[in-house]
Amino acid sequence: MTRPSGAAPSDGPGARTVVLVRHGETPLTEVGAFSGGGVAGPSLTTRGRTQAARAADATFRIGKDLWPDLARPAAVVASPAARTLETAVAVGRRTGQPVRTDARFDECDFGEWEGLAADRVAEGWPAELEAWATSGTHRAPGGESLAEVADRAWAGLADVVVGATVVVTHLVAIRSMVGRALDAPPSSWRLLRVPPCSLTVLRLRPGGTGGPGIVAVEVAAVGHPTDR
Known about the structure:
By secondary structure, the chain is α/β, with parallel strands linked by helices. 34% of the residues lie in helices and 16% in strands. It has helices at 27-30, 46-61, 82-95, 118-124, 126-135, 146-160, 171-181, and strands at residues 16-22, 75-78, 99-101, 164-169, 199-206, 214-222. The chain has a six-stranded mixed beta sheet with strand order 3-2-4-1-5-6, with helices on both faces. It holds the Pfam family His_Phos_1.
């Protein structure tokens, strides 16, 4: 029998679902600047608020006409950044769930690159940027590596995901969790495309070696065609 979202036949009691939602667009998203964790960061733009409303509508449809074989989301968790909280509030309002925060889902700490446009970072730190992006294990100056982001975010999933949970988070954080779920090398995580307010679904089941008590068994994504 074909399952609507490609769910694995081994799904059974104890299966859990996490819906990773990237925040909406901010002024720094528009210019491709590094906007990291550990700071409140910018708020959503008008376009970003529209994206958040669309993501909230899509999340509300999970378990109905969108991924009908999945459980309806029963909890909403967000990183403490302004942009994720604003997006999460839209999701929570639409799904009827309160929003709680967890700093383990913060964006990568970009250290000295915080707030800088990508071309400025490429000009000032060419070797460091290349190593950070292509190795996945090299730290940004004064900041984190992709692998370090994965360690804390994956541990967060083990604690917060019960049943079906929405986690509103960031580009690098989502790349790291999906990469870890697929057991892909950190050097390849940068290839994952995660548009603003896209939804990425991970199906989890107890046990395994993919993380503390959980292993990903399904990945799917819904993006917005106009957000390229």
